[in-house]
Amino acid sequence: MNRRQFLSSVTLSLPALLRAKESEGVLRFGVITDVHQDIMHDGVQRVSAFVDAMARERVAFIAQLGDFCVPEEKNRAFLNAWNQFQGPRYHVLGNHDIDGKHTREETVAFYGMSARHYRFEAGGVCFIVLDGNDPNPESKEKGYAHFIAKDQLDWLDATLSNTRLPVIVMVHQPIDQAAGVKNHAEVRAVLEKPRKGLPGVAAVLSGHLHQDYVSRINDIAYIQVNSASYLWMGNTGMTEMYAPEIHKAHPALRRTAPYRDPLWAVISIDWSMRTLTLQGRSSKWVGVDPWERGGRFPKDRCKPAISDRREDLR
Predict the structure, then answer these.
(1) Distances from the Cα of 217 to the Cαs of 177, 189, 220, in angstroms?
(2) pTM of the entire structure?
(3) CATH class of 26-312
(4) pLDDT of the residue at 140
(5) Residue 83 — very low, low, confident or very high, per pLDDT cuts 50/70/90?
């Protein structure tokens, strides 16, 4: 009996199934971002739906790309729902994860992260998780810090120079435009740096903007993953879409254009074909759409959906 016949003759555990799938050259994992438990009234239900779906999909691991929840006991049930996934779970720090004067170190401890920025390997891929919340020592701007400081850039450079695996980067704030990491060009220079004989960076996954698009810069695919929950409206067309008691308990909801159903994506990486395939989800707006409320957003990027995509990898 050969190995394939043996595998088909027994009932495999989930880890064995995943190892068999990865041995065929395909890695599948689940991604969700910007759930915003501290704004949404149904964050637990949204993350629970994601975890249940990823268990059915038998993905190798799950990752959230930031703006998850602040490190407070009121969010323990939300974090517990995330931890129901029976496999590796990875976190990226978002700017709203340190709201309420919390420190990044407090959030790292609450989530059970190994560090603010770190690396891990899965399915023959090196994943690098960055923290885009460093303060800029040369800036006096107020508000959220959207920067990657020199010590982290040095670590990134060294990490890229010491892996022979293809690399996928995860970061909350995008690094393909100025609306994300402020020193995005400097970060991209490190990602694009020639490293003789090494595969380099194939793709960057980010959240933060609550938009749905992909841009390619110098052969790297920058994939913007849409929020699981809503488009932020701010002070434009504030509207109450839910029951009065829900809005009383969650006052920031009236500043959002919520998605009826949670959004997430399953990403498949096939190195034999050198492709990244993203399987997304579509939903509908709760109530009237953002443009009826006076919003001015690009309709091709701002929608209650994560689009299906197929990207060639370098």
Answers:
(1) 11, 11, 5
(2) 0.91
(3) alpha beta
(4) 79
(5) very high
